[in-house]
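BUG: 3D viewer hangs when loading the predicted structure for this chain

Environment: internal workstation, default settings.
Expected: structure renders.
Actual: progress bar stalls at 90%.

Input used:
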Amino acid sequence: MKYMQLSEWKSREFTGKPWDNRTIKKYIAEGKLVGILNGRGTLVREDQTLDMLSALHFELEELIRLSA
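Structure tokens produced before the viewer hung:
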């Protein structure tokens, strides 16, 4: 698996103002994005996209709604 620097990933994924680095690191720590937390040298797996994250959020929201 290939990884890219957090700044490179943000420039690829965001057309407008990107998320704060702390937000992305939080998503990695929570398992929502696949990456390596290494202090300031955080890496994100190349195949991770914002679209995938949006799909995950939608699926989680749907499961929560159905279980209520």
